[in-house]
């Protein structure tokens, strides 16, 4: 019995899908969901051009279609299959394919496709008896840096306890064929991703992370321990990575980069392509959560951790020095604060246990829930440019002017990520 058998009994996908012989020394598996994608060859070519890692690598492309796919989309999938049949493998990297039949409405979406590929990677790592195998999540509209696989391999070699990691990313576009409106749209969206990440870091939330489907990796054992990928139609990456972050050590590789496309798309309900499409002709630009909402949480988190030493977790004490504390108070009461904090205290032998348990309860989803509530009923959302500039001031970053564009601010936030 190999290490993956119990997983497939509970959470696994269908039976063996890829008949190809498993290469010796298989240590990396790159999973690419692919639906109606005319540019997959650029992704594959970039992978075939990366520096060679120590382990052999499989690239598993999952060609899938939703229940309502059009004839043209199905035709494009057929072209993708024909293309993959012509790919010439190297002696260390092997491109495989999984062809999913048209999925039901319930199972349609990138979550099911990503799960099919990742589960197959687990199956093949199981046959190869390699529980330390690394599963890498990528999308079919990306290209990758030369050191992509070698940096991932190096990270897990140096961080043996790590369950997974996110990867550096930078949206790309063709200057000649991309309009100023599209450039502004993708700049605003990537700026939002980085603003949100650095806001979580600023407020003292320990489990801050980037959750981008095209830019994370996970060990085979960690994937199994978290019950595998979910089948959500979108946002599957956020829910899966959040579980990983809460379960143990999760890192971020800064040096290598994934370059997602910045084109428009209507294939998923939200994400890069959808945002670019909606923002291109928007009168308001990208609106995001107000810095004031994050500052409320910063004060709350500071107070709640300080209370460990006084043992007084009464909601009025914890919120005593926070302006507009009724907003937080009502939210916490609705989330059964008294019951949950009592259970957390009872099961915490020390401060580290308390902090871990508290932030597993007040997790990224709860933060998102509070931000949505507070901005809906009190603060209102702010333009991403104004919010990003506000956070830079809170971080004591010395800005030289007041009229930074989204592109200017994005370059600043990209630099912040390198520190």
Shape: globular
The CATH C-level name of the largest domain is Alpha Beta
CATH architecture of the largest domain: Alpha-Beta Complex
Cα radius of gyration in angstroms = 22 Å
The fraction of residues assigned to DSSP E strands is 5-15%
Q: What is the helix/strand order?
A: HEHEHEHEEHEHEHHEHEHHHHHHEHH
Mean pLDDT: 89
- The order of strands across the largest sheet is 3-2-1-4-7-6-8-5
Low-confidence stretches: none
Going by helix content, strand content and strand pairing, the class is alpha/beta
Looking at the structure, the CATH topology of the largest domain is Spore Coat Polysaccharide Biosynthesis Protein SpsA, Chain A
The biggest beta sheet reads: 8 strands, mixed
Distance between the termini: 45 Å
Percent range for helical residues?
40-55%
- DSSP helix count? 17
The total number of structural domains is: 2
CATH homologous superfamily descriptor of the largest domain: Spore Coat Polysaccharide Biosynthesis Protein SpsA, Chain A
Number of strands: 10
Describe this structure in words.
This protein has 419 residues and is of the alpha/beta class. It folds into two domains: 5-285, Alpha-Beta Complex (Spore Coat Polysaccharide Biosynthesis Protein SpsA, Chain A); 291-379, no CATH class. It is 47% helix and 13% strand. It is built from 17 helices and ten strands. The protein has helices at 5-10, 40-48, 71-84, 110-127, 148-158, 180-202, 220-225, 236-247, 272-279, 291-306, 315-318, 325-334, 337-346, 351-361, 364-379, 384-394, 406-418; strands spanning 26-34, 56-63, 93-99, 134-137, 142-144, 164-169, 216-219, 250-260, 287-288, 382-383. The radius of gyration is 22 Å and the shape is globular. It starts with a helix and ends with a helix.
């Amino acid at each position: 019995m190999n290490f993956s058998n119990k997983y497939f009994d509970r959470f696994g996908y269908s039976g063996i899908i890829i008949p190809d012989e498993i290469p010796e020394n298989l240590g990396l598996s790159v999973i690419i969901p692919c639906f109606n994608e005319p540019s997959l060859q650029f992704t594959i070519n970039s992978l075939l051009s990366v520096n060679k890692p120590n382990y052999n690598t499989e690239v598993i492309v999952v060609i899938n279609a939703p229940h309502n796919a059009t004839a043209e989309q199905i035709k494009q999938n057929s072209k993708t299959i024909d293309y993959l049949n012509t790919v010439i493998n190297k002696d260390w990297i092997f491109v495989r394919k999984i062809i999913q039949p048209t999925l039901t409405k319930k199972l349609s979406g990138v979550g099911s496709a990503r799960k099919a590929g990742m589960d197959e990677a687990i199956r093949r790592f199981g046959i190869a008896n390699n529980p330390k195998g690394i599963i890498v999540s990528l999308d079919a509209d990306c290209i990758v840096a030369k050191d992509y696989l070698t940096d991932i391999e190096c990270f897990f070699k140096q961080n043996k306890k790590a369950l997974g990691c996110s990867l550096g990313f930078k949206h790309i576009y063709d200057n000649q064929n991309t309009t100023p409106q599209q450039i502004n749209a993708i700049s605003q969206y990537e700026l939002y991703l980085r603003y949100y990440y650095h806001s979580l870091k600023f407020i003292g939330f320990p489990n801050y992370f980037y959750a981008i489907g095209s830019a994370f990796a996970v060990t085979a054992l960690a994937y199994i321990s978290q019950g595998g990928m979910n089948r959500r139609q979108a946002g599957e990456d956020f829910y899966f990575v959040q579980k990983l972050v809460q379960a143990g050590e999760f890192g971020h590789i800064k040096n290598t980069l994934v370059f997602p496309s910045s084109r428009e798309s209507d294939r998923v309900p939200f994400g890069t392509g959808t945002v670019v499409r909606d923002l291109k002709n928007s009168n308001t630009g990208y609106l995001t959560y107000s810095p004031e909402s994050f500052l409320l949480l910063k004060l709350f988190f500071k107070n709640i951790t300080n209370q460990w030493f006084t043992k007084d977790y009464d909601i009025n004490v914890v919120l005593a020095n926070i302006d507009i504390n009724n907003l937080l108070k009502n939210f916490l009461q609705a989330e059964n604060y008294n019951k949950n904090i009592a259970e957390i205290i009872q099961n915490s032998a020390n401060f580290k246990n308390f902090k871990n348990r508290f932030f597993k309860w007040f997790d990224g989803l709860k933060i998102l829930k509070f931000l949505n509530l507070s901005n809906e009923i009190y603060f209102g959302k702010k333009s991403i440019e104004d919010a990003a500039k506000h956070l830079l001031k809170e971080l004591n970053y010395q800005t030289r002017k007041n009229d930074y564009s989204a592109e200017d601010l994005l370059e600043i936030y990209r630099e912040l990520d390198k520190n």
